[in-house]
Design goal:
CATH architecture of the largest domain: 3-Layer(aba) Sandwich
Radius of gyration: 19 Å
Shape: globular
Structural class: alpha/beta
Oligomer: single chain
Helix content: 40-55%
Order of helices and strands: EEHHEHEHEHEHHEHEHEHEHEEHEHHEH
Number of domains: 2
CATH topology of the largest domain: Rossmann fold
Strand content: 15-25%
């Protein structure tokens, strides 16, 4: 196993016209210190060996690719394959970058790591990584998500992190980001803000992308070994966009591979209750960077919604915005009902309970696979498992 890092973005943190550091000068200094520390250690043998060892012996990498043959046969079209990030320690792709961020914080001599979480997967993964390296961890989480994702809340508490309920605004992910960042600003010298996706000011979109790239690197080699060729489509759900960038990065230069990101249409794109940022958003600034976001006429972020707590964010990673503009990635959307149908179908046909976030990608694959030839292949990044969502879905569907 090896880790390689890409040169993009530019030295100001921009992917085309998106990204950057929309911050006060003193915070830009702090962010540049983080970037300098990351650049100093990212390709050193000590850092790479320590991270590789943890990815193999702690996380359980490489995660396998599974051919969902029964589901493919039932649909009667393209063959569906799943990159099983749900099998990682802590149950999702989030552990990949949380280990990297925790090791970086330790290297910088930080004494506390702060973060937001929506579905709780980032919170659990970061609490796990902080326990491993011995750094204090504080997680901010919206009150609605605390109720909805109770199993992950319990895990975070067991792991020793301090959980801060967020009662402002919509009481979901966007407000948790605001809360965590405000707390970070009180002591940026001794604390480290471990952003949970490929969002935020430079260098976080780059760093999280780099740590997640292992997903795509593994998947590319595994798929060739299994099928003797590359997949026809590589697909992932998109909220902030970390699991999708992890998969897409390895295939960006492969013109034969179509890349598809799947956003949450929520209760419908014709309602205000969605989080389809790349589908309906416009360029603006949020949380210290420029990206497509869902905003009002004054440029303020709109309230957003998704049945999947990890996707209800009004912005999106700047590299996704760039890839949309150059038409390298196609972005689609799936509504709540389609997501729930896919959640139940994968569970009952293949015995794999997906996270509601991942079920958006499964749903879109199911939608298009049936109309594709049987010799075509769709590779989905199954970014997380659905343990956290099981009680919520059971109640929602009266199971």
């Amino acid at each position: 196993m090896s880790i390689e890092f890409l040169p993009m973005p530019d030295d100001k943190g921009y992917f085309g016209e998106y990204g950057g550091q929309i911050l006060p000068p003193d915070l830009i200094t702090i962010m540049n210190q983080i970037n300098d520390a990351y650049e100093d250690i990212r390709n050193t043998d000590d850092f790479k060996n320590e991270l590789n060892d943890l990815l193999i012996h702690y996380v359980g990498r490489p995660s396998p690719i599974f051919h969902a043959k029964r589901l493919s046969d039932k649909l009667g079209g393209a063959q569906i394959f799943l990159k099983r990030e749900d099998l990682n320690h802590t149950g999702a792709h989030k552990i990949n970058h949380c280990l990297g961020e925790a090791l970086l914080a330790k290297h910088m001599g930080k004494t506390k790591v702060l973060a937001e979480t929506g579905a709780g997967q980032h919170g659990v993964a970061l609490a796990t990584a902080c326990a491993l390296v011995g750094i204090e961890c504080e997680i901010h989480m919206g009150e609605i998500d605390i109720v909805k994702e109770h199993p992950n809340v319990t895990k975070m508490k067991i792991l020793g992190c301090t959980l801060i309920p967020v009662s402002r605004g919509t009481r979901t992910l966007k407000d948790a980001v605001d809360s965590a960042f405000e707390e970070y600003l009180k002591d940026p010298v001794n604390s480290f803000y471990a952003i949970g996706s490929v969002v935020g000011p430079h260098p976080f979109p780059k760093m999280v992308r780099d740590f997640q790239k292992i997903v795509g690197d593994e998947a590319r080699k595994q798929f060739i070994d299994m099928q003797g060729k590359l997949p026809d489509i590589a697909m992932a759900c998109v909220g902030g966009g970390s699991n999708a960038m992890g998969l897409f990065t390895a295939f960006i230069e492969d013109e034969s591979v179509e890349l598809v990101g799947v956003e949450p249409a929520g209760k419908g794109l014709d309602t205000p209750d969605h989080a389809a940022t790349l589908t309906l958003g416009s360029k603006g600034a949020i949380h210290g960077f420029e990206c497509y976001n869902l905003q009002d006429k004054e440029g303020n972020p709109l309230p957003v919604y998704s049945i999947a707590s990890g996707l209800d964010y009004p912005g999106v990673g700047p590299q996704h915005c760039y890839l949309k503009d150059i038409k390298r990635v196609r972005y689609e959307s799936i509504d709540d009902n389609e997501c729930l149908d896919a959640f139940m179908e994968l569970s009952r046909v293949e015995g794999i309970i997906p996270a509601l976030e991942s079920a958006h990608a499964v749903a879109y694959a199911m939608k298009i696979a049936k109309d594709m030839p049987t010799d075509k292949n769709i590779l989905i990044n199954l970014s997380g498992r659905g343990d956290k969502d099981a009680d919520f879905v059971a109640e929602r569907l009266s199971l």
